[in-house]
Amino acid sequence: MAEYIVKNGFVVDPTLGVNCEKMDIAIKDGKIVETTELKSPKTIDASGMIVMAGAVDVHSHSAGPKVNVGRNFRPEDKLNYYKAKSGVKRMEAGFSVPTALSSGYIFARMGYGFVMEAAMPPLYARHTHEEMRDTPIVDEAALPVFGNNWFVMEYLKNHEIENVASYIAWLLRVTKGYGVKCVNPGGTEAWGWGMNCVTPDDPVPYFDVTPKEIIKGLIEANEYLRLPHSMHLHSNSLGEPGNYQITIDSLKCAEGFKANSDFGRDQVLHHTHLQFHSYGGESYGSKEFESKSKEVMDYVNGTDNITFDIGQVTLDETTTMTADGPFEYHLSHMNNLKWVNKDVELETAAGVVPFIYNPNSFIGVAQWAIGQELALLTKDMTKCHITTDAPNAGPVHRYPRVIKWLMSLKARNQILDDCKYGDSVRSQCYIGEIDRELSFYEIAQMTRVGTSKCLGLSHMFGSLKPGMEGDVSVYAYNPETDDDPEKIEHAFGNAKYFIKSGELIINDGEIISNGHKRTFWVKPGMELTAQVNRDVTERFKKYYTVTQNNYEVKEHHYVPNPYVIEVNAA
Amino acid sequence: MKKVELTIKQQPELYLETENITPDAFAGKSADEIAALNVYEGNVTHKLGDFFSIAGTPGATAADTQIVVNGNLERVKWIGSRMTAGEVVVESSMDMYAGAFMAGGKLLIKGNAGHFTGLGMTGGELRITGNAGNYLGAAYRGDWRGMQGGVLRVNGNAGSDVGSFMRGGEIIIGGDADVHVGTHQEGGKIVVKGNAKSKVGGQMVKGEIIVFGTIDVMMPGFAHRDNVDLEVDGTKATFKRYEGDLGERHPKSKGAVVYGQLYIKQ
Ligand SMILES: [Zn+2]
User: For residue A412, how many other CB atoms are within 10 A of its CB?
Assistant: First the structure.
């Protein structure tokens, strides 16, 4: 493999304590090495540019059945947004739901080396893996959803944590999944009865467990299995005015739990797209709705076992898609656009609805403001991660715009000044009182250090220490001479150079390789309990529309280039 | 107004996509620069000058530019699409997407127009002297934003799915319309001077459809309310007024429910 030396860049790496210092970074055999280990490296001149480790994404939706439904039912999403094939790079298309190929290229251009597909319906794990396989360059993994799963709810009803853990272990092995995702705990199952679980204390019909019991049970099982990542939660009543207390009550479920894992994480609960869960007021009206980001962050900042991502609204036309079936139903009745609803047998459900976050509306800009506030009110930036819950709050290619807003008060004020409800947003939210501007160092904490630690991958990603994966991003922004927020957005969206696992992917802004993407999955050490073994066999015979043999994700076809993380049982 | 005359000199083997034949693309350019604009045949990119001879010079702005296109253009798509000002005269029948997403100016097609003509148009005047194909003034596949403004006038007949998802503006058809008129219509006005077949106003939320002739099969979701005298496109007559589609959602305005209005001449 070629050797590279990235010379003279302004290196930003919180794991090395380095903040915009001129340093050379050496890459050999796919890994970062000491510069003295190189024999005849190719030189990449990064003079006047920012150099960071490859970025790590904790939560986006770019592969799987609901993403593909979004692609299929939104041909208009591709109408004005496509790029022709050029060189080795294949054709790209789609604004909010890009094709699998586009997704890989978009992540590479932003300098991302690892991406977590945040919701995999186990029954459709094969589909999810096929799309991840076809997404070039970036390493990926997927989180199967457990929060409305019949097995989990039945075991939890009887407080059988060992059986929950055993079932999770079995499902991760069979679906080649990475960790435990929980979407609208209990509420999606209730949706099958035309109901919802609005608060964490609403019992799930028939199963008679509450969302709180599901959240706590999944945290306990996750730590029992000592998994690399923590339980990953989308709590109840997403998007509802006044939901912040429900959010805090859900976060409190983590109290008393401590991380039990060899993979370096501290958190036992990752709350995703916290922006959608930090609302006050009783309606979306400009006199009613208000931000409760400060209240939520007062709680989060005081804990040491919770991380979160923001789910920043980007004020675009986009496509919402979630396993929160009842929420998508509400949304489709708010905007009267097309709606897809899907039940996934014993496991989960999903909905898809196009949505326009209007930059000239009160509610759109208030939601935008709340996302910014959460990040700007965070004390330890490694706990707070940049996402747009792509494509729910905005397309994934907007990450660089989110970075621009967080780094520039001027850019934020422009959004408020351009909106005719800007003053209402300033008075109903906290955005007007905050003048903090994040630094490149803090952006690296949010997009590299914090995310890789949260996923249990800090031994591989998020750092430029020798021995780490050879993922290096070079952005054309000079921290000494440049002072234009627009240039920040452009630089972070168009990496000048990107090296992935030691291979040069982007050279002088042009994609020159489709890389060798890997799919990560976690193999827990725990064996099947007799009870779970019996239940799984019986349920497949009795209820599933597929046999157990046609359920498993067979590695050679679906995961041709796996990276398996084996976890020892307790 | 300055004039550029294009004459097709070679017929494409496939169909030719010419979204660059607009006053906006031509304005301020030399004949050589116009000849160097891209046209597309399948997945191959050609130059406009490979297929058209070019005479005259455009104005400095789109508003000051007229384009006349001569020859047989039955295998040419997208003329006048996204134009915002100026004038285009097509001296021939044309294939699909003429004036698609047009926002202003005037487009005249002397002949028949293919499917998806005036797709999602937001303004301007589009006239067809012959017949129009299917999806006239409709929304792009999957989209909910059909014609939103401007005037679209057809002297002859129109195909199926006229004004699907129409949101505003006016479509006037001199002759007959095929099935599906104003499906999902949510604003604007469709006038059919001849007859309509069936499925008129299916899932219509609001807006108007006026039929001078007959409707073979009425949608069950329309209720006869009263009879009214109207002047439509210069003709005064009495029309039966229906409201619908009663099976669809309907917004409220000043406390009253707003329905789609369907008028049939007595
Ligand atoms: Zn999500």
Answer: 23
- Best to test chain B binding among A336, A338, A339, A352 (most B CBs inside 10 Å): A336
On the question of pLDDT at A570 being above 70, the answer is: no
| Residue A133 located in a structural domain | yes
Domain assignment present for residue A371? The answer is yes
Q: How far apart are CA A89 and CA A564, in angstroms?
A: 28
Domain spans, chain B: 112-265
pLDDT tens digits, A111-124: 999 999 999 999 99
Within a domain: A72: yes
Nearest-neighbour CA in chain B from A74: distance (Å): 6
For chain A, the domain total comes to: 1
Nearest 10 degrees: Cα torsion A545, A549, A552, A554: -140
Predicted local confidence at residue B119, as pLDDT? 98
Q: What's the predicted TM-score (pTM) here?
A: 0.96
Pairwise CB contact (< 8 Å): B140 & A79? yes
ipTM of the assembly? 0.91
Contact check, Cβ <8 Å, A338/B249: no
Q: Give the 3-state secondary structure percentages of chain A, helix then strand then coil, rounded to 5.
A: 35, 20, 40
Amino acid, res. B194: G
pLDDT digits (tens, 9 = 90+) for A15-30: 999 999 999 999 999 9
Separation in Å, CA of A25 to nearest CA in chain B: 43
Domain with residue A161: its CATH number is 3.20.20
Q: Can you spell out the DSSP letters for A424-473?
A: HHHHHSSGGG------HHHHHIIIIIHHHHHTT-TTTSS--STTSB--EE
Residues in A lying within 8 Å of B, measured between beta carbons: 73-77, 79, 336-338
Contact (Cβ atoms closer than 8 angstroms) between residue A251 and residue A231: no
Longest dimension (CA), chain B: 61
Which residue range(s) make up the domain with A75?
54-454
Mean pLDDT across the stretch A317-321?
97
Inter-chain contact A337–B249, Cβ cutoff 8 Å? no
Question: For residue A69, is it within any domain?
Answer: yes
Return the amino acid letter for B51: F
Q: Hey, are the CB atoms on A79 and B143 less than 8 Å from each other?
A: yes
> Residues A401-420: what's their mean pLDDT?
98
Average pLDDT, chain A: 97
What CA–CA distances, in Å, run from A193 to A185, A197, A290, B3, B197?
15, 11, 32, 66, 42
Phi, psi dihedral angles at A298 (to 5 degrees): -55, -40
Give residue for tokens 């590695």.
A555
